[in-house]
Amino acid sequence: MNSQNYYQPGGSLPPNAPTYVTRKADEDLYQAVKAGEFCFVLNSRQMGKSSLRVRTMQRLKAEEIACMAIDLTAIGTSELTSEQWYNGIINNISENLKLDNKFDLDVLWEENKRLSNVQVFGKFIDQVLKLVPTQIVIFIDEIDSILSLGFPVDDFFALIRAFFNLRVDNSEYNRINFVLLGVATPSELIQDKKRTPFNIGKSIELTGFKFAEALPLIKGFSHQTSNPETVLEAILDWTGGQPFLTQKICNFICKSKDEIPTGKEASFVENLVKNKVIENCESQDDESHFKTIRDRILKKDEQKTAYLLDLYQQIWYSQGIDTDNSIEQSDLQLAGIVVNKDSKLKIYNQIYHTIFDNLWIEKTLASLRPYADSFRQWLLSGKQDKSRLLRGEALAEAEVWVKDKNLGFEDREFLAASRTQEQEEKAIKIEAEAKQEAERQLAIAKKRTKVGLIFLSVTLGFATVSGIAAFKMNQNVAKMEKNVAKIRELSEVASKLQQKNQVNEANQFLNIAGLVLQDKITNQELKEALLDSSLVSGYESLSKTEEEEDKNLQLDPKYKKAKEDFTKSIEKLPKENNFDKTDTSYLATLVYIYYVKAKLEKEQNKALADYKKALEKYNLLKSKSNTDLFKLDLNILYNGNADIVANLYRELIKKTDTMQNADSSNTVYYESLKTHLLNELDYLMQQNRWKDADSKNSQFILVSAKKENPGYLEVNDIKNFNCNDLRKVDDLWLKNSKGKFGFSLQKRIWKEIGNSLDFEWEKERFPKKWTAQGYNSFAERVGWKKDTGGGFLIYDELLLWEYKDLSTYKQYMGTLPTTLAGEWSSGYTPFFLQRLVDCSR
Fold first, then answer.
1. How do 39-42 and 136-141 pair as beta strands?
2. 552 to each of 320, 502, 536, 540, 595, how far by Cα in Å?
3. Are the beta carbons of 124 and 90 closer than 8 angstroms?
4. Span 179-184, average pLDDT
């Protein structure tokens, strides 16, 4: 035996290699192919896929089964045309099956030149079936290389699936099998999400070497030790059975020629691993093994890098985390750095755990996070050290950096804590200054007016001394008295709205009153216009429930006075070119003011002009690159109770729809409304505001279906529901919940229970497998039913609402969305799951 060449780390092992390790996958693949099943072996690199393919082909050929392999990397990807790629595959099959002299490939292409390339390939397979009488198995290796092609090959996989489906009608297709091998997931193979995913065939699980399986490896170093099995155990303790690393370490031992002392086997292997593999792993990584793992995590999708590192860090610190079949967990598994063991995701082996340790994680994150050091120190303090939180410019830069990244919960918690701490510190400073100013202003006021300003200390329930003091800064007493009177009046309007159970509107006006009181708006003219517009809008809200009240409203002197004041304050606003277009508070206030002005306008064209003016200011606001529209300090537009921007789009849609010369702008506004609602849904999810997100999801569903009025859906609405919109909203749920929520997940649970998704829309029925018990079982699985008694929970009783951190919510998967918030018992969900199936066809 030549010990120098006994082991072969990397590359495909020859069919009769003495170090080939037979695993369960060998028998699984062989039996599946023999049974005529399409198969795929999709796993991380250097797991022995190609060697498995070589050995399986050897066994099949021994039984006179026609086998051949296509290595897609040999065909190439760079600057290749679709025709060249298909021609490469056809030539490869033809040469391997020795068909060159049986028919002319050039004639095949010429006769079918009007057909697509994939159709020519289908014709070729038909010829192969006529010329080769035996079973045919085509192994396609390095399947992931298709992701680098400059043209889509979805049709190629669709054709393979068609061969499978044609077996029902033509038994000849039972003789041809495909085996796909590579580093990818089945969902990646067909990239057009409008098409049915590649969901046929049998997945062959390729695991690391088990001890009993790996025993043939001891022959290479058995002459160096009296306990070769003990040495093998020590090797596997380090490699976890990872094939490449196991062969590599066996090779190092074999080449060392050192005798391994009895009783010191574990320490000998440990020293060898540390010296030959771990230390200076960069320079010793001659097979680019570790670089491949790094690149898969850091470079495959840079938008997800931070989240993958965060997820890996959680696994590194723990004994493993629960598997949830998320895309991110799959990415780490395909990188090869983690493995699924007993439904737990764990670090694959000690070598990876040592090389890709927490120091590596932190250094890598440091190159990504601009706040890495502060973040780490804050975590080490148990999240108690407030001095490590960000402030000022550092916080602003961090919030810009995280905007388009999928970061973990702790990152968001750190930034939220930083923002809260900064606001608290500002409030303390303002309070101290405000108290001094309050004393000074009160002294001046007593001298200048008999009425005085002492009543301000009790002006509103939500007005603190510091808030009033801040409000009085830089204002003369007369203007201050006038504005405080309007704030008091707005508070009274809000109180009446609360009594009428118009809570959202009441909160909106209390919010505006509070913002003015806190002096969030410095421009006096803008402040007056905001108060006047709010008062007019408040009186309008009070009247909208009864037609008779609307008539009485026109006679109300307070309402008439508010309208007159609003008209005057609008005229006092700075002209178009005389205001600061970079001031986000100014722009947000103008959006609100022009929105209210438009609502009051009776003449259609003038109203539309004002709505467009409001939209113009909003678009200016959106154009500010550092502005998070849902976190504006002046939260007039989005305060959790009123969504002025959504209402603005709705009014624009309504106005342009009713005009005689309506143009395409109506469609633009409709699409803008949907985009806005999706953005707001995304924001709510990122804030872990799951109940608000579910409600926003309902709004989006109704808007997309154009059924906000009447506010409910019919079966036909769901049958024709926009597939693109359904996929978008589903993707948001899956992404932000890390795979815990979403229509796709609900669909999987629905089918696992045994329910069908073959709804007949015209007859409005499920022809089979639809029972009340099936629906109830689904409701139990997703947490919609009570643990005792079996009844449905009231919407507000859902256990999910108790959890602010979704990572601690482990009771149920698929709880959200409820389709229409609070309305799951109406049975909408199965129809949406059916629509999801229809959209994938």
1. unpaired
2. 68, 19, 14, 11, 24
3. yes
4. 92
Comparing C-alpha atoms, which of 112, 140, 146, 114 is closest to residue 127?
Answer: 112
CA nearest to 153, candidates 200, 92, 84:
84
Q: Which residues pair with 338 in a beta bridge?
A: 347
Of 238, 154, 195, 177, which Cα lies nearest the Cα of 38? 177
Q: Is the Cβ–Cβ distance between 742 and 681 less than 8 Å?
A: no
DSSP 34-84: HTT--EEEE--TTSSHHHHHHHHHHHHHHTT-EEEEEEHHHH--TT--HHH
**Residue 547 pLDDT > 50:** no
Whole-number Å distance between alpha carbons of 819 and 841? 22
Burial tier of 587 (Cβ tally within 10 Å: 0-12, 13-18, 19+): buried
Instruction: List the one residue out of 177, 175, 176, 180 whose CA is nearest residue 140.
Output: 180
**Closest C-alpha among 175, 153, 150 to residue 164:** 175
CA-based Rg of the chain, rounded to a whole angstrom?
34
Residues 6+ apart with CB under 8 A from 693: 681, 684, 685, 816
Q: Is the pLDDT of residue 470 over 50?
A: no
Q: In this structure, what token pair is assigned to residue 486? A: 């309007």
pLDDT at 638 over 80: no
Estimate the crossing angle of helix 409-448 against helix 477-499, to 10 degrees.
130
Task: Find all residues with CB under 8 Å of 359, minimum gap 6, and list them.
Answer: none
* 269 within 8 A of 351, measured Cβ to Cβ: no
Helix H or strand E segment including 378: helix 372-380
CB 819 within 8 A of CB 829: yes
For the residues 332-345, what does the mean pLDDT come to? 92
For the packed helices 584-600 and 604-622, what is the interaxial angle rounded to 10 degrees?
A: 160
User: Which of 458, 459, 469, 390 lies closest to 427, judged by CA?
Assistant: 469
Angle (CA) 623-627-631 rounded to 5° is 135
439 pLDDT more than 80: no
> SS3 for 160-226, per residue?
HHHHHHHHHCCHHHHHEEEEEEECCCHHHHCCCCCCCCCCCCEECCCCCCCHHHHHHHHHHCHHHCC
DSSP per-residue codes, 563-600: HHHHHHHHHHSPPGGGS-TT-HHHHHHHHHHHHHHHHH
What's the rounded Cα separation, in Å, for the pair 322 and 341? 10
The mean pLDDT of the chain is 81
pLDDT(240) > 90: yes
Stated pTM of the model: 0.50
pLDDT digits (tens, 9 = 90+) for 716-760: 888 889 999 999 999 999 999 888 899 988 888 888 888 888 777
pLDDT band, very low/low/confident/very high, at 267 (cuts 50, 70, 90): very high
For the residues of 322-364, what is the DSSP string, one character each? E----HHHHHHHHHTSEEEETTEEEES-HHHHHHT-HHHHHHH
pLDDT at residue 505 greater than cutoff 90: no
What is the average per-residue pLDDT within 591-595?
88
Q: How does DSSP classify residue 137?
A: E
Give φ, ψ of 336 to 5 degrees. 90, 0
Nearest Cα neighbor of 85 from 163, 145, 160 is 145
Q: How many residues does the chain have?
A: 841
In this structure, the number of other CB atoms found within 10 A of the CB of residue 197 comes to 17
Task: For residue 222, name the pLDDT band (cuts at 50, 70, 90).
Answer: very high
Contact 572, 528 (CB under 8 A): yes
Report pLDDT for 195. 65
Q: Is 789 helix (H, G, I), strand (E, B) or coil?
A: coil
CB 611 within 8 A of CB 663: no
| For range 320-343, the mean pLDDT | 89
Residue 689 CA to residue 683 CA, distance in Å, equals: 9
Alpha carbons 28 and 841: distance in angstroms, whole number: 30
Q: Is residue 209 within 8 Å of residue 241, measured between CB atoms? A: yes
